[in-house]
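The data are quoted verbatim for reference:
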Amino acid sequence: MRPDTEQELAQMVIGATGPLRIVGGGTRSFGVAQGEVLSTAGLSGVTLYEPGALTLVVQAGTPLAEVEALLAGEGQALPFEPMDHRVILGTQGTPTMGGMVAANVSGPRRISVGACRDFLLGVRFVDGAGRVLKNGGRVMKNVTGYDLARLLAGSHGTLGVLTEVSLKVLPVARASVTLVLDGLEPVRAVQALSRALGSPYEVSGAAHVAAGQARTLIRLEGFAASVRYRAERLCAALAEFGDWQVVPEAADIWRDVRDVSALAGAGDIWRVSCRPSDAPGLAARVPGSDAVFDWGGGLIWLRAAPGTDVRAALGAFDGHATLIRAAPDVKARLGVFPQSAAPLAAIEAGLRARFDPRGVFNAGLMAPAGGVI
């Protein structure tokens, strides 16, 4: 099913006699959702773009690349730097705006500006009863009761089918440099990243790629004179870790971090959210794994041997692990998303019962209904 209008979509949901599998561009198939495919690709186009107001309203099926090109023409961008999952998932589709929001896709810059959900001004969506619902507006100060926009972000289509999203955008930084240091062990690397993030020098990217040649990366952005000054001061502050190389305009380096290119080879891929100080020890608990540490260590991408139960290997820790890439039988056995604690699970079940009482959306996926990933 491929509706071309919001009303067509609503009628398809009302007429559904079984589960529906919601698909945008088909690039972020993390889970094991079941049912007839319902594509939002026909809901495409920019509804409103006001560069002066830093406001964008776009239909859910609009290709992300189309939007990024439009924004680039005005010297603007989606500040949360959404990753392209095709690199690690091996998918061939086209990332869409709705899929980006539904998965709350955010990249390295999240540590400085926030996640996708933090830039959502409003959403339109169709719930499980076929009702067209709207929440939020087109300005950051808009207040309309429950913040359903944030609730939908990260719920992976389990509460409703997004039809339109409103987002705040920001200007692209005038200049950028990256501090690069090779050869650090993960413990020392995370110490360096933590010190940089705790400094007054406004770090916008902090990552350590442990897969292959170990490389520690720190990004600074802003006006050219400010960036130069901050880079000099930060190199001095981090001198005990080694002799940092300052690389200007390293967009390709951060694209690889964003898309986790270092882990594109064979193996299962897990996404682990944790305290940065715990990250090196957690990664070491999974023998034979390769790791990329982003967000100063708060996000670990792990590539493990096929079928490895990484949650069991990690044991109890303050965070959670999501299985991003694995064979279908492994996903079925281990579960894609972590099990929620009983109080949170009750809230999630209540939300699903409220917004999808018939259980037609992405049956079997069991994504967090509150958008917590």
